[in-house]
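Hi there,

I know you've been waiting on this one. I reran it after we fixed the sequence typo, so this is the corrected version. Both the input and the resulting structure follow.
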Amino acid sequence: MLIDSHCHLDRLDLTPYQGSLDAALDAARQRGVSRFLCIGVDTANAPTVRELAELYDDVYCSIGIHPLDLAREEPADLTWLLANLDHPRVVAIGETGLDYHYQPEMARQQQASFACHLEAAKLTGKPVIIHTREARADTLALLREAALPQAGVLHCFTEDWDMARTALDMGYYISFSGIVTFRNAESLREVARRVPADRILVETDSPYLAPVPFRGKSNEPQYVCEVARHLAELRGMTFEQFCQQTSDNFIRLFPLAA
């Protein structure tokens, strides 16, 4: 059993499957992928990810506004968030967070939106899916201030061990994508070796960041197997052990997806 803990099913390139999402999901299922968490990124795709989660028994979703979408969206509105989170197939909040790499001029808007998502997490008890890039201090400060008992996950992690350790100390999980397989990602691989076994997740972030040997191509959920195999080898585990461990972790963090 293996779970893709972060994918954008509504954005996949379905050309190899003649436009069929069913076929793309079946390709992943045939390789042992048993669940998919489809991620919300803005107000426009919230109905879409929810509909996909209603359509497929093994697909769940999250609702939120990505920090990089704030250039064309208003900061998250708590009333909108709470209304859209009130659904049994919506198991998490986000993705949300801070990204100063691409939009440093949007820092204040991103912080306000992130804080709103964290407030929604306090009110609903649902975990948060966090995107963070070149915003370490502010991300950690807002997480520390929120002090969420159910925490969440720093997805597609690319930061250093100090940030990972601080987030782990606050109860967060760390998820790795295909980036960990890239040739120039040795420092990230060192982080992946050190994350405790009960706090690590695996994802594709498809259609982005396809792992080796598919780097440069459109990513898809079945390639979570390549990421998991690479991480298992890094950590001295069998593929089967790693799949079971990360699946157990996923269910612990997202109990509504059990």
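Quick highlight: The beta strands are 2-7, 33-38, 59-63, 90-99, 128-133, 152-154, 173-176, 200-202.

Best,
R. S.
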